[in-house]
């Protein structure tokens, strides 16, 4: 073989090796069973191998930070915009220019400069015990600070990011001073010192500890599927607050492409895959969350919680106001 022939063969071989090696490394803050079937399908359809590492979102963020430029991560998937914001401000993401993503995902559910994208939406409404509370008595989150609810509310602790994001949203909407006054009153209405997770608040309401629980909808959805928790889930009803004004507080799970992604093209392809209607429908349903893409059908369970108007606040604001939210909660004595 002549030299030029040899080099042609070499080029062809390395191209083949590259084609075979198409892969994407995913750091996922979601449990394997809540994401892997979709990643497997992505691999089958695109030939791109997915290497999945799962862990707690905050630990994955720290890991990416300590790995720095050498991080193999291409995509970070995380729940709660507060965490995506944290990853973004630590410089762990890069902007992604994808018309497909910006067309599919409403602007309030993605970073203004496309550093991260919401892939599912979750809501944190009011859950009440019928018989103890009439829906007509409920209106806004602000109203839950009224003394008439004294000793009637269950909610988890202030170190939880869902509550921090909820309070951050209030600061964005009402200002810090009004939110502080709200928090001071709201904490006085707690039925017990905050303990446990969201499911525990719903269980406490079902057990008669409180009349109202604040929890993310997917916990309630998951409880219906769990023989041990089904009765507690059936004991509460969802009330959508602030429907006459800004809409109910929502959050997202989402993802961003890592700043030093070794496989950026594949990473973007994966995100684009996740907003396809079929993927949206599966991913939202298995997590008991809402699709972010308009027109994708909700699961029956979510339909049963009712339609609602969602707050259109740009969600990156929740990250920006996180520190202030923690201060407000501390001052109010929210444990
Ligand atoms: Fe959660």
Can you characterise this structure?
- It is a single chain.
- This protein starts with a helix and ends with a helix.
- Strands 1, 2, 3, 4, 5, 10 and 11 form a 7-stranded mixed β-sheet that branches. It has a 4-stranded mixed β-sheet with strand order 7-8-6-9, covered by helices on one side.
- Helix content is about 45%, strand content about 15%.
- It is globular.
- The mean pLDDT is about 95.
- The longest helix is centred in the N-terminal third of the chain and has 18 residues, at about 5-20.
- It has 15 helices and 11 strands.
- By secondary structure, it is α/β, with parallel strands linked by helices.
- Fe (ii) ion binds near residues 79 and 216.
Shape: globular
Helical percentage: 40-55%
How confident is the prediction overall: mean pLDDT? 94
Q: Which value, in Å, is the CA radius of gyration?
A: 22 Å
How would a crystallographer describe the biggest sheet? 7 strands, mixed
State which percent range the strand residues make up.
Answer: 5-15%
What is the string of SSEs from the N terminus onward? HEHEHEHEHEEEHHHEHHEEHHEHHH
Question: Quick one: how many beta strands?
Answer: 11
Q: List low-pLDDT spans.
A: none
Attached small molecules: fe (ii) ion
Instruction: Indicate the structural class.
Output: alpha/beta
Q: Number of helical runs?
A: 15
């Amino acid at each position: 073989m002549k030299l030029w022939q040899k080099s042609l063969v070499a080029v062809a071989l390395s191209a083949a090796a590259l084609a075979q090696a198409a892969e994407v490394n995913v750091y996922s803050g979601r449990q394997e069973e809540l994401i892997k079937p979709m990643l497997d399908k992505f691999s089958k359809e695109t030939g791109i191998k997915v290497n999945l590492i799962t862990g707690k979102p905050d630990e994955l963020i720290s890991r990416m930070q300590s790995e720095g430029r050498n991080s193999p991560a291409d995509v970070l998937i995380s729940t709660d915009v507060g965490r995506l914001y944290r990853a973004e401000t630590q410089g762990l993401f890069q902007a992604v220019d994808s018309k497909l993503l910006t067309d599919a995902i409403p602007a309030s559910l993605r970073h203004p400069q496309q550093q991260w994208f919401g892939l599912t939406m979750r809501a944190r409404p009011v859950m009440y015990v019928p018989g103890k509370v009439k829906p007509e008595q409920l209106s806004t989150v602000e109203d839950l600070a009224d003394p008439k609810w004294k000793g009637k509310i269950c909610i988890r602790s202030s170190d939880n990011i869902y509550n921090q994001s909820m309070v951050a949203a209030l600061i964005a909407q009402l200002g810090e001073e009004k939110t502080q006054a709200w928090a001071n009153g709201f904490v006085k209405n707690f039925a017990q010192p905050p303990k446990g997770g969201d499911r525990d608040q719903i269980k406490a309401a079902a057990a008669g500890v409180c009349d109202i629980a604040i929890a993310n909808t997917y916990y309630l959805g998951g409880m219906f599927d769990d023989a041990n928790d089904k009765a507690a889930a059936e004991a509460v009803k969802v009330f959508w607050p602030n429907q006459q004004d800004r809409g109910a507080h929502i959050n997202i799970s989402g993802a961003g492409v890592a700043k030093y992604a070794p496989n950026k093209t594949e990473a973007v392809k994966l995100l684009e895959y996740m907003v396809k209607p079929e993927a949206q429908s599966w991913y939202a349903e298995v997590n008991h969350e809402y699709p972010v893409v308009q027109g994708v059908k909700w699961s029956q369970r979510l339909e049963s919680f009712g339609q609602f108007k969602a707050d259109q606040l740009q969600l990156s604001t929740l990250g920006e106001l996180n520190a202030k939210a923690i201060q407000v909660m501390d001052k109010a004595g929210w444990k």
